[in-house]
Design brief:
alpha+beta, 84 residues
Amino acid sequence: MKKAPRRRKPKSAHLLGVGLDHADGHKRLTRAEEFTIVGGSEETHGRMTETVIKTFETLKTRGKHLHAVEPQELAEIIHKSTPR
């Protein structure tokens, strides 16, 4: 008997941001298809969300997807996308 060919799973990737500086008791969670932001103060959570959104805009402009970008390039994009 011949084995059925294996189906390859499509590559996937997901960014996870975790904020640890919440002291106000609020539980913050922002989810999208390719990222999740959890926790943090209101300011930190907002900055992380803004950073990730800008990161995905840059990837789109470059015609790349998260699962296909090299880690070094992704780190550079995130660094440039982080609000000062």
